[in-house]
């Protein structure tokens, strides 16, 4: 019996609290803004520069929406990166192969953001944040498509 409950727990998606959603989404937005700013300075590939401009605008928008909705719930977005996003940004800053590293990281983070927002839009516990997540999901789908089309 115990193994059956462990198996069902492993299969069922874990619901994020509103606070956890805001913290994770704001870390992603902050990583995306900082990496896009870095890419606009360091990227040699014009496709990466164009994607960085798009990502910067998109994440400034999703960040503003998250901040507005979060304030209504007394949940302020974080002004710091989580350890994984900080490690990625540090690696991006230190790499000699900026364009390939930036592109690889974007593939990871955009998909991470898409999963986060999609899941929260469907099952999130906050009626205030679910529409924010749904909008961010559509922005991330567009970003993922732009990332795929720019190569």
Automatic annotation (TrEMBL):
InterPro entries for this protein: DUF4142 (IPR025419), Ferritin-like (IPR012347)
Signal peptide: 1-25
Gene3D superfamilies membership: 1.20.1260.10
Domain of life of the native organism: Bacteria
Ranges for domain DUF4142: 18-148
Alphabetically ordered keywords of this record: Signal
Protein name as it appears in the record: DUF4142 domain-containing protein
Organism (species): Sphingomonas caseinilyticus
